[in-house]
Every structure is written in C-alpha cells, then in structure tokens.
C-alpha cells in the first residue's frame, strides 16, 4: 500500500524531506530575508558615503549625553539601549522555550518582559532623537563638525535618522506583534491548538530586529 504523505511534506529518498518546514515559519524566513536585503542596501549605501568622505563627525562627540547626567559620557546611553534590546531577546528565547514545553504562564511572563524591553528601547530612542533635534540635528541639518574640525555635510544626519528610524519602526512593529501574541496566549488560543508555533515565529522576527541593531550600532556609534 502506498505511504500516505501528510500535507506540506514530501518524501525525499524514501524518507522525510529536508525542506519539511512549517509553512508559516518558512514564509517568515522569506520575509526576514527580503527585509535583510533592505537593511543591507541602507547600510552599504551609508558605508559607501562614509568611507568616500574625507571628514566625518566623531561618534564620541555626537553621542555623549545621558539623561539626568548631562554631557561627557560617550556612548554610555546607546550602550544601555543595546543592553536593553539584547536582554529582551533573551526573554524572547525563554518565551519560545516555555512554548515548546506548553508552559502557558512561562510564555506570558517572558512575553511581558520582552514587550517591556521593546518599549524601553523605543523610549530611549525617542529621547535620543529629541535630544539631537534640540541640538539642531535633523534631516537636512547637521550641527556637528567633522573629527578634523571641518564643516560636516548632512549625509551623517540624513543616514542616521533614516536608518535608525527604519529600525525603530521594526521594533515598534515587533512590540505590536508581541502584544497580540501575549493576548492570544492569555486567552488560551495556543493552548487549545496544542502548540505555540506563533510565538516561535514572533521570536524569529524579534531576534532579527536585535541582530540588525548590532550592525546599526557598529556603523553609527563605533566607526
């Protein structure tokens, strides 16, 4: 009798297909791949202009303010932002792990912490943008001198606000997705389905957002 093949699964050499991936997860990977190309295009464009220009603002001079402490703390605030986002990725891993164990309360607890981390990061980014705007930095406006003391172009601020804003939009979208996942978890939707695959898909998106920040952080704050 011919072997029945479950929907979405193909036999490969008489066994299980190496491409046997749940459809929704596969589509998420496709989306993340296309999104990675977009971020890559932005960062490559930035790198091209950055290293084709003789002068560029010193990040230690631009990003030296800390709320309540004033100036003179180079990269301290963005380091706190980065730590917050990384920790939110850790709690997302714990939420996915809890989902694999059908631990509803574990999923809820860690999703709450992940959402708090995302909101905290967005709050930090809002403060940074507001502070830079008060200093005269915006699209088409760059008050910062180059590291060599010469007048800087607006390329720095144009790229900074565009790329960090694009990333911030992704973080905001991730927070909204996580809130929806949290509500569905609380209402027992995944418990009735018998699996928490949607939490894992949301986790893929959140980890992607965190990974992209590593590249954004390196390009704007360290180089």
Q: Encode the helix/strand succession as letters.
A: EEHHHHHHH
Number of helices: 7
**First-last Cα distance:** 64 Å
Per the principal axes of the C-alpha atoms, what is the gross shape? elongated
**Domain tally:** 1
Low-confidence stretches are 1-17
**What oligomeric assembly is this protein in?**
single chain
Report the C-alpha radius of gyration, rounded.
22 Å
Summary of the model, kept short:
With about 220 residues, the chain is mainly alpha-helical.
Describe this structure in words.
With 223 residues, the protein is mainly α. The protein has one domain (35-222): Cytochrome c oxidase, subunit III, four-helix bundle (Four Helix Bundle (Hemerythrin (Met), subunit A), Up-down Bundle), CATH 1.20.120. Helices cover 69% and strands 2% of the residues. It is built from 7 helices and 2 strands. It has helices at 23-52, 59-62, 76-100, 104-134, 155-186, 189-193, 197-222; strands at residues 11-12, 15-16. A two-stranded antiparallel ribbon has the order 1-2. Helix 3 (76-100) packs antiparallel against helix 4 (104-134). It is elongated and about 65 Å long. 22% of the residues are buried. Residues 1-17 have low confidence and may be disordered.
């Amino acid at each position: 009798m011919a072997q029945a093949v479950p929907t979405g699964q193909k036999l490969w050499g008489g066994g299980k297909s190496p491409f046997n991936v749940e459809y929704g997860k596969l589509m998420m990977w496709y989306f993340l791949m296309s999104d990675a190309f977009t971020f890559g295009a932005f960062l490559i464009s930035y790198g091209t202009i950055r290293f084709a220009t003789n002068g560029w603002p010193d990040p230690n001079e631009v990003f030296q303010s800390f709320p309540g402490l004033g100036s003179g703390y180079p990269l301290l605030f963005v380091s706190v932002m980065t730590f917050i986002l990384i920790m939110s990725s850790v709690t997302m891993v714990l939420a996915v792990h809890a989902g694999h164990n059908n631990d509803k309360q574990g999923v809820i607890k860690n999703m709450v912490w992940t959402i708090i981390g995302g909101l905290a990061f967005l709050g930090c980014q809002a403060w940074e943008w507001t502070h830079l705007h008060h200093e005269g930095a915006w699209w088409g406006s760059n008050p910062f001198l180059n590291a060599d003391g010469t007048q800087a172009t607006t390329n720095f601020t144009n790229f900074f606000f565009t790329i960090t804003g694009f990333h911030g939009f992704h973080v905001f979208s991730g927070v909204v997705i996580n809130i929806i996942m949290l509500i569905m978890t609380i209402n027992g939707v995944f418990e009735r389905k018998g699996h928490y695959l949607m939490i894992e898909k949301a986790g893929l998106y959140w980890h992607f957002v965190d990974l992209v920040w590593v590249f954004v952080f390196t390009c704007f704050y360290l180089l």
